[in-house]
Design goal:
79% of the residues lie in helices and 0% in strands. It is an all-alpha fold. Helix 1 (2-35) crosses helix 4, helix 5 packs antiparallel against helix 7 (149-174) and helix 11 packs across helix 12. It is flat, with a radius of gyration of 36 Å.
Length: 332
């Protein structure tokens, strides 16, 4: 009995949590819409005011809950492509930011703070590697196979820092609109970090794939690879597209390209149709044998004529189907 009461109380609190989320999202969507110049129905604002005047969530009637749900659906369509949970998160972050003391340089959103710290560490690593004598034009002129030991790791870390700076710069410059249009949510953070990792990997791959040969001791091999790493980190999606095109080209060389694939598909259809045609011929032969048996066993002339007509109709249908299959195979 006590367990049943406990479960009922949990369900009751769960219902209140659902209602609280519904009301909070509706309030956040109204505030977001008004602040961005969207037209909000006065009835929605009045309903929100009535709900705010209630002492507790338990005072909400079923009728008011239905209206709140309907208004929630309407506001979700109004703020699209923003999502209710995204707008609620942005509203909460704005409230936290306003409560902080004035003069604080801490960013409003944790992701921005993490990206700034990561970018600063990458810049520091790049500068620190640049002070080392092991990072030079001569060392950058070597490939992965011709370089080894600590100098190789230091040069690789130098290029990784450059790629990380490019990827961080790209994210910081493109993520700002997501905060203003309500399309950002912390669940998307993993995708941004994956972009940085892809940028670092792409920077290393491109700097090693693109052949850069210095013609003299004064040439700027270091500057060339540094620029390549920065650009590769900034445009990791472009690097992915280039590698994907190379793989598609190699696959077409092995498999023969789209024309060979189409020829294989046509051959497969021919074999399938020939099989269906042979199967139809076997069915016709079986039905002809059945017709022969019926003629031998039948003694009544009228019934014999009906049996013959019915059997001939079935044979003719299969024969027409067989002709159609043969014509289809010939067309292919």
């Amino acid at each position: 009995m006590s367990e049943t009461k406990q479960n009922l109380s949990k369900d009751k609190f769960a219902d209140f949590d659902f209602i609280k989320i519904l009301i909070d999202e509706l309030r956040a969507m109204i505030s977001f819409s008004l602040s961005t110049g969207k037209t909000v129905s006065p009835s929605i604002v009045a309903a929100m005011r009535d709900i705010d005047n209630l002492d507790s969530l338990s005072d909400i009637t079923t009728e008011k809950l239905k209206k709140a749900s309907s208004y929630h659906n309407a506001m979700s369509k109004l703020i699209f492509p923003a999502l209710p949970q995204n707008v609620l998160y942005l509203e909460e972050q704005n409230q936290k930011y306003e409560k902080r003391k004035k003069g604080s340089f801490e960013p409003k959103f944790p992701l921005i703070r993490k990206l700034i710290i990561f970018g600063a560490v990458s810049v520091a690593g790049l500068i620190a590697c640049g002070f080392s004598e092991l990072v030079s034009t001569h060392s950058m002129d070597k490939t992965v196979l011709s370089s080894n030991g600590f100098p190789f790791l230091l040069n690789l870390f130098f290029l990784s820092c450059a790629s990380a700076i490019g990827a961080t710069f790209m994210l910081l410059s493109t993520i700002k609109p997501k905060f203003s249009n309500g399309t950002y949510h912390p669940d998307m953070d993993s995708g941004y970090w994956i972009t940085i990792v892809l940028g670092i990997i792409g920077g290393i791959i491109i700097t090693e794939m693109v052949p850069l040969k210095s013609s003299g001791a004064e040439e700027g091999m270091l500057d060339d690879k540094l620029l390549l790493a920065l650009l590769s980190g900034f445009s990791s999606q472009l690097v992915y597209n280039i590698l994907n095109k190379l793989i598609s080209a190699a696959e077409s060389l092995v498999n023969g390209g789209p024309e060979v694939a189409r020829a294989n598909e046509v051959q497969r259809l021919k074999i399938s149709n020939e099989y269906e045609s042979a199967k139809a011929k076997v069915d016709i032969a079986n039905k002809m044998n059945g017709l022969r048996r019926k003629l031998k066993e039948s003694s009544d002339a009228d019934n014999s004529e009906e049996n013959i007509d019915g059997a001939l109709d079935e044979v003719l249908e299969d024969l027409v189907f067989n002709i159609d299959l043969s014509g289809l195979c010939h067309d292919i």
